[in-house]
């Protein structure tokens, strides 16, 4: 059984216990060089709960991205409508932190329980097949079936060879959100390489400079397979940053305890970067496109770097019990909110409203509907929910949610973490 360090409160001074990897692969306590109390190995409960809220906020942003219904058509922002500018600011700017924070959290929680042994690697790979690959296959199969039925009902030919059909089904199904799950599986496969890069200071600096610089300039290393790149530089960079952050856990805790004035300043800077980028290039597009210049590209990437930190600091102060409960259903919402649901939703709303404004209605309706469905399935059909989500069943958060200004015990239970 994997044992993680535990922090208790005694006499007002918390004892900290660190479990380090011995040569035999077992965990042994390691004391500080001065012989005093060991150093804490794990994140606090507050930080773990904050990452649960981060996944909730990021899921909301992803739904907004996919239901965005109108964008500026020209580079000049003065020629765009307020509807276009509003959607671009929220879903083309602010919401673009969603993928980076997902990738960062995935890297952090993968490597925090990774001991570097081949057995641990195989175990984690097997776990991700159950929690990532199988949900990918189930949702992809549903989307592919619906796509075929629509094509047949519209009398459109299906011009795919058997190889193209299988490639579309298994590697790039019509549900666009699944690209991130495919990236995660690739990252898990190459995780030992990422761990090696992050464990050596000189190598880590060089790797971070190369990968970070490539992401900053939107230079993609990996070729496409079935229309999607094998791996996006953004997911690689932030997954690796999640790995490297384990040696700087105090920074994560310190960011969460930022003051309200710091958070407000962060939101101001973040919003300003997005707004300036829109002013310079309203029709900015970076997703498999190069509709951008160097100035607006750097502003966009800078807004993501600032936004990821600000979103985390904000989430730290949103650790309420009911939000943690909602957060436990976020993976289900991520899986089901896109095709075919999006196609059905648009066909319904197009009958009674201007399609350009549909996102303002559909985004909240889809979010409420999907989260409500997740809670109901988790309560009444837990087996079906577990099969679809790889074991992620929504559960009410414990009543003793850790306050932001009190040191508390670290629980070894993955269920208490709220992050899978």
Automatic annotation (TrEMBL):
One of its GO terms (cellular component) is plasma membrane. The chain crosses the membrane at residues 51-69, 89-111, 132-150, 179-197, 202-222, 228-246, 258-278, 298-315, 322-340, 360-378. Residues 401-413 have a biased composition (Polar residues). GO terms for biological process: enterobacterial common antigen biosynthetic process. Pfam families: Acyl_transf_3. It is found in: Cell membrane. One of its GO terms (molecular function) is O-acetyltransferase activity. It comes from the Bacteria. Residues 57-377 form the Acyltransferase domain. Keywords: Acyltransferase, Cell membrane, Membrane, Transferase, Transmembrane, Transmembrane helix. Belongs to the acyltransferase 3 family. This is Acyltransferase family protein. It comes from Rubripirellula lacrimiformis. The lineage of its organism: Bacteria, Pseudomonadati, Planctomycetota, Planctomycetia, Pirellulales.
């Amino acid at each position: 059984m994997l044992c993680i360090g535990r922090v208790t409160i005694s006499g007002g001074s918390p004892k900290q216990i660190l479990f380090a990897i011995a040569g035999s692969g077992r965990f042994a306590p390691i004391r500080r060089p001065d012989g005093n109390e060991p150093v804490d190995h794990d994140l606090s409960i507050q930080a773990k709960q904050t990452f649960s809220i981060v996944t909730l906020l990021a899921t909301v942003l992803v739904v907004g991205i996919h239901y965005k219904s109108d964008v500026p058509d020209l580079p000049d922002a003065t020629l765009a409508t307020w509807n276009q500018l509003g959607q671009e600011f929220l879903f083309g700017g602010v919401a673009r932190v969603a993928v980076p924070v997902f990738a960062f959290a995935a890297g952090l929680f993968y490597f925090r329980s990774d001991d570097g042994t081949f057995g641990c690697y195989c175990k984690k790979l097997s776990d991700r097949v159950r929690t990532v690959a199988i949900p990918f296959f189930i949702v992809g199969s549903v989307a592919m079936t619906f796509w075929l039925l629509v094509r047949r009902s519209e009398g459109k030919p299906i011009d795919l060879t058997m190889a193209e059909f299988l490639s579309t089904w298994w590697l790039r199904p019509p549900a666009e959100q699944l690209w991130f799950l495919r990236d995660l599986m690739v990252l898990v496969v190459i995780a030992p390489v990422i761990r090696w890069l992050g464990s050596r200071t000189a190598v880590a600096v060089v790797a971070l400079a190369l990968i970070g610089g490539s992401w900053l300039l939107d230079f993609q290393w990996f070729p496409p397979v079935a229309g999607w790149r094998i791996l996006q530089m953004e997911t690689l960079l932030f997954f690796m940053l999640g790995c490297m952050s384990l040696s700087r856990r105090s920074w994560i805790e310190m960011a969460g305890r930022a003051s309200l004035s710091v958070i407000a300043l962060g939101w101001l800077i973040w919003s300003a970067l997005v707004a300036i980028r829109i002013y310079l290039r309203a029709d900015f597009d970076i997703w498999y496109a190069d509709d951008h210049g160097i100035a607006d590209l750097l502003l966009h990437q800078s807004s993501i770097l600032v936004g990821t930190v600000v979103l985390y600091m904000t989430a730290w102060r949103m650790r309420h019990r009911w939000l943690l409960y909602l957060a436990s259903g976020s993976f289900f919402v991520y899986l089901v909110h896109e095709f075919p649901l999006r196609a059905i939703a648009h066909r319904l709303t197009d009958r009674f409203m201007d399609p350009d404004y549909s996102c303002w209605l559909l985004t909240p309706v889809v979010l409420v509907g999907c989260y409500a469905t997740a809670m109901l399935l988790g309560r009444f059909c837990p087996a079906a929910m577990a099969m679809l989500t790889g074991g992620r069943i929504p559960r009410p958060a414990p009543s003793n949610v850790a306050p932001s200004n009190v040191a508390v015990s670290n629980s070894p239970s993955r269920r208490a973490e709220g992050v899978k």
